[in-house]
Design a protein that fits this description.
6-stranded parallel β-sheet; about 15% strand; 434 Repressor (Amino-terminal Domain); 12 strands; about 325 residues; homodimer; 4-stranded parallel β-sheet; Rossmann fold; alpha/beta
Amino acid sequence: MSTIEDVAKLAGLSRTTVSRVINNHPYVSDDKKKRVAVAMDTLGFVPNSAARRLRKQKAETIAVLVPRVTNPFFSKLIESLEMAASEYKYKLIICQTRYLPEKELEYLQLLATKQVDGIILCSLQNKWEHVEPYLEHGPIVLCNEYAEEAKIPTVKFNQIEGAYEATKHLLEQGHRRLLFCSGSEQSMVVQHRKMGFLRAVAEHKLQVEYMEFIENAYDIEDGRRVFHTISHMNKIPTAIFAGGDEVAAGIISEAKRNLWHVPEQLAVVGFDNQLLSEITEPAITTVCQPVDKMAYKVIEVMMDKIVTKRYRHKEIYEFDLELVVKGSTVKNMMMLA
Amino acid sequence: MSTIEDVAKLAGLSRTTVSRVINNHPYVSDDKKKRVAVAMDTLGFVPNSAARRLRKQKAETIAVLVPRVTNPFFSKLIESLEMAASEYKYKLIICQTRYLPEKELEYLQLLATKQVDGIILCSLQNKWEHVEPYLEHGPIVLCNEYAEEAKIPTVKFNQIEGAYEATKHLLEQGHRRLLFCSGSEQSMVVQHRKMGFLRAVAEHKLQVEYMEFIENAYDIEDGRRVFHTISHMNKIPTAIFAGGDEVAAGIISEAKRNLWHVPEQLAVVGFDNQLLSEITEPAITTVCQPVDKMAYKVIEVMMDKIVTKRYRHKEIYEFDLELVVKGSTVKNMMMLA
């Protein structure tokens, strides 16, 4: 294999100049950059990144821990993060934790072994005290998750407000029997949404007849199961906060298959404003989360922390959510569709 | 921070024994393993993986290159690969290439820098001659992709047969004006599906009135666009091979919004048998790809290649696809749904 000296010789430049070009050193003329590029290409020379990284003490790689890549919310978030990181010439490696605390710790090791420069945690199943020691090795930024005791940068959505608006909308449509669906109760996202839901209910408490809660609902299949559960309840709810568009789609399609009228008999609110929410009939009223904005902020914060190394204090960046009303909660919307 | 000596002292064992436990050496009693685990836990000792990996010359990590994680086919594939790798105690890192040849090469560098032990390529936008040099650094396995000249293990689906069956089904329903939708023509998956499509058409060539082709259709949004394109054609096709369930869902929902009858006026076949294919009305006739089987085979092959280092020859593992007929192509299916 060819060496850096071969490249220097072919390009007619010093070894130092070639090294500068490879390491993106400033103050190298475009002409020299070009000559080095041509020589590298001709010789098939690949700079030794391992050695280079060691010198620079940077992996130029960030790890993102997500619970499940098959969840469209997370796959969209990954895509946005990857594009944002790309603008800083950083590689992104994605690690799926499947909501397993031990997987989270396994992947946090990537920071200890210097395989990555920082970790974006979109999954937090461990107690904070088990994650905190890894800060010794580099920055960790929380994304879409939240831990009260974590003194690190956190970028999130205002889930309380989002769930409050969605629930208020259902109550304003006259619903008095409500069902709240969610994923794991351990997640702060779920806890915050529940707070928002309960706040709206509290404001209408004289009218609300009852409310029910169902946990561990994540996808279309779960949505179908939710429909069959409620259809066998003594008092059947008339409105569902589904926690996600996939769950909402499962509920709606199964309800229609059983000849229920949506939204007259059953109103459903999703979450995410996925393309899927336009496919069901009626389309799904949902809460839009500005994933792109969050992703760009997370990467911006991470880049700052990698450079300044000052990441051991709490900073919260929060984005607002927006309710998008469609046919699954308001009847005359169907005419517009 | 505590050292391996501290662990040995607390466990009342020799340093060598502790090291053996950490490195999963055989012939260590369960009792000793347990004592080491307790001591490590008590001291909060984390084995130095970097040093350990160096000794073992293994990263215990595999990289998977996929074009887009937002495509449900790839996110399902990633999930299955991750679970299969997990059984071998391997970590998976996922790299999104966005169909960009330069991103592919960038991530292939992970092999050269020993950050990973092997690479699973589910994305191949480069000419094989540009990928081939990386084999010097470790095994590469092609997954769901194919390159005639690549002398490496390849695990794939029989796309030719799958597309042939789907097209034959449309022809048997009496359709004579066909549209073939696909992603990039550069992909071998697309080329093979086109071969299958054309083979079925050739068998019915006396009856076929015409066929059209549309490229770069990937998601629901593209499906909607396809509908509007065909609705303005001079001769409107009556049957569409959509290339994916998302594209099919976009076509169907837009057709229905414009008061077309599916399947009477327009029959649509998807690909993937995603949950989404059950949500549209009617449900989508689709081609089921056994993603799990493929994923487990890929990991099995990769593990073998990492150990034996004999990976520079062609081996093809192929799985059959299955047509699942639903309401988007056969009218009386709707009664069953």
